Amino acid sequence: MEGIIHIRIDDRLIHGQVANFWTNELGATRIMVINDDIAKDDLQKSILRMAAPAGVATSIISKETAVTNILSGKYKGQKVFVVLKSPVDLLSLYEMGLEIKECNVGNLSNRPETIVLKPNISVTTLEKESLLKLIEKGITITAIMTPNDSKIYIKDLIK
C-alpha cells in the first residue's frame, strides 16, 4: 500500500479535525475518501473538496477504484490519508486485497440501533461484526479523536 500513511474511520469524513489536525500532523499531501455512494454524488464530493485544506489534493472514489489504484502503485511517493465512513467499508477493502495493518476510528455518530463503545463511537451490529472480523485478522484498530489523544484499542471497548 505504497503512499498510504494513515487510515481513519470517521462518519463525518472531511471536517475540521481531519482537515486541520490529522492532515497537518500526518503531513498528508492527499485526502482520499473511499465510499461508493459519495463517489457517485457530485454535490457531496463538491462539499467535501471545499472542506479539504488548501494545497492538499482530494480523491473521492469508490472502493473498487481505490483498490485498483492502490494495488497498481498509483500513490507511490505521495502521503495519502484515507478516510472511510464505516468499518464495513474497511472490511470490504481488506477482503478486496488491501494489506491493511492499522486503522484509527475517530467518530461514529450515535444512531438508532447502535451501541455506544465510547462517547464518540457508536456501532451497529454490522459495524461491530466488521470490527471484530478485522481484529481477528490481526489488524490494529484504535480509537483516537485527535492526534494528541491517548491511544485506546477498540478490542478493549467491544464486549
Structure notes:
By secondary structure, the chain is of the alpha/beta class. Helices cover 37% and strands 26% of the residues. It is built from 7 helices and 9 strands. The protein has helices at 16-26, 36-39, 42-51, 63-71, 87-95, 125-136, 154-157; strands spanning 4-10, 30-34, 57-61, 80-84, 102-107, 115-118, 121-123, 140-143, 152-153. The protein has a 7-stranded mixed β-sheet, sandwiched between helices. Strands 6-7 form a two-stranded antiparallel ribbon. Helix 5 crosses helix 6. It is globular.
What's the total count of β strands?
A: 9
Helix content: 25-40%
Distance between the termini: 31 Å
How is the biggest beta sheet arranged? 7 strands, mixed
Going by helix content, strand content and strand pairing, the class is: alpha/beta
Q: Please, what is the average pLDDT? A: 95
Unreliable stretches (pLDDT < 50, length at least 5) are none
Strands in their spatial order, largest beta sheet? 3-2-4-1-5-8-9
In what range is the share of β-strand residues?
25-35%
Question: Count of DSSP helices?
Answer: 7
Q: Could you give the order of the helices and strands?
A: EHEHHEHEHEEEHEEH
**Broad shape:** globular
* CA radius of gyration: 15 Å
